[in-house]
Write a structure and sequence with these properties.
By secondary structure, this protein is α/β, with parallel strands linked by helices. It is built from twelve helices and 15 strands. The chain has helices spanning about 1-20, 55-75, 95-105, 115-130, 140-145, 160-170, 185-205, 220-230, 240-255, 295-310, 315-335, 345-355, and strands spanning about 45-50, 80-90, 110-115, 135, 150-155, 180-185, 205-215, 235-240, 260-265, 285-290, 360, 365-370, 375, 380-385, 390. α3 (about 95-105) runs parallel beside α4 (about 115-130). The chain starts with a helix and ends with a strand.
Length: about 400
């Protein structure tokens, strides 16, 4: 009897040790060679990189937060389950690639690419080589998708933003003499400027001043503003992110120069920039696909959830992140994708779904994608009034 009890005790201990150590065939997520990632845990792993710290952190944090709200909503439905992880790339291309590799080691099966354009140009090369499908919320450079049939954009591509901005300024008669200040060492800013310039010439807009700056010179805009002022510009087009724009607003006021300002989606988020006097942005106009003041049910619910979770009104980048997850969810359902599939298997199904179906989201209805990965949807004109974004259309 004692020997039998000893046998049972030993067997129980061995069973417990096996359970604790796990079985390599069914336990932790497998991470085979590039493009072959699978998830054995039942959740599809979605990864993205973005600036979670540093000067562009508002963009990365907003995209991540919006995406996480969508993941939580979808997971609460039961059925398809997502697991989301974002890595900080500090708006730096090299760090973005390192962050991407961390996500690949984690077992990423679907990618949200990178939040900003320069890092996303670098990580999109990796997405394409590894055959991991990517849908970036807000990296708008043409080079992000160019030559890569598995990389898509939720945001407008730079050429579309430049063309649409010139058309909007012309149609709304927002300025008689236009100045442009853009960042010539940034693919986002220079890409938008090039198509804006071409469309402005076609429309006959009177562009009286065009000046540039670089990463190393974006603290002092006195020369650029003086040129615009001396040439009588009553509207300045700013195809740039909000950080340099905030300095332009401050320095223009110190010069007693108060033109109208028109920006693009990179301007969204300026009202939550730490230490910025929001009164300086009063009257600033921009094109964006998302209006937090919209009264449709989807937007109202999203804004309420976002405000409850993060104590601020969501910007376009948050809405883009949210829409990315739901667009992926719709494609996963339609394509009968399961977590047991490899990343490369998912990739081919998702490419087919995104190029043959439409999507309704916070940032647009009947959204479609071309084979080049660029999105088709309508922008909205916004103006900042009393510290809030208000629709102009």
């Amino acid at each position: 009897m004692k020997k039998f009890l000893l046998f049972l005790l030993t067997a129980a201990m061995l069973l417990a040790m096996t359970a604790c150590n796990g079985d390599s065939s069914t336990g932790a997520t497998a991470t085979p060679a590039a493009g072959g990632q699978t998830s054995a845990g039942g959740s599809i792993k979605i990864g993205g990189t973005g600036p979670l710290t540093g000067g562009a952190a508002i963009y990365g944090q907003a995209a991540r937060n919006g995406a996480q709200i969508a993941v939580d909503e979808i997971n609460a439905l039961g059925g398809i389950q997502f697991e989301l992880q974002y890595q900080d790339d500090e708006h730096d291309a090299e760090k973005a690639v390192n962050a991407y590799n961390t996500l690949k080691d984690w077992g990423m099966q679907i990618s949200l690419g990178s939040v900003t354009s320069t890092p996303c140009v670098a990580t999109s090369v990796e997405n394409n080589a590894d055959r991991i499908f990517a849908l970036t919320p807000s990296a708008s450079a043409v080079a992000v998708t160019e030559g890569k049939n598995n990389v898509f954009q939720m945001c407008f591509a730079d050429p579309n933003q430049g063309t649409a901005s010139a058309q909007y300024i012309n149609d709304q008669k927002l300025g008689t003499k236009i100045a442009v200040i853009y960042k010539n060492d940034d693919v986002y800013s220079s890409g938008i400027y090039e198509t804006f310039s071409s469309k402005a010439a076609e429309l006959g807009l009177d562009v009286v001043s065009t000046t540039t700056f670089t990463e190393d010179s974006q603290q002092d805009f006195s020369v650029q503003l003086a040129d615009a002022k001396n040439n009588g510009a009553d509207l300045i087009f700013l195809p740039m992110y909000y950080t340099p724009a905030s300095l332009i607003f401050q320095q223009a006021k110190s010069m007693d120069y108060s033109p109208k300002y028109f920006g693009v989606d990179g301007m969204d988020g300026i009202l939550t920039l730490e230490g910025f006097n929001a009164e300086l942005a009063e009257g600033v106009m921009l094109l964006t696909p998302f209006n937090a003041d919209s009264t449709d049910t989807r937007t109202v619910n999203f804004v309420a959830k976002y405000n409850d979770a993060f104590s601020e009104v969501p910007n376009q980048f948050a809405a883009d992140g949210y829409d990315c997850i739901y667009a992926i969810y719709a494609a996963v359902k339609a394509g009968n994708i399961t977590s047991a599939m490899s990343a490369s298997e998912m990739c081919e199904i998702l490419v087919k779904q995104f190029t043959t179906t439409s999507f309704n989201g916070l940032t647009g209805d009947n959204v479609t994608w071309g084979a080049n990965g660029q999105v088709s949807k309508s922008p909205k004109g916004m103006i900042i009034e009393n510290g809030a974004y208000v629709g102009m259309d």
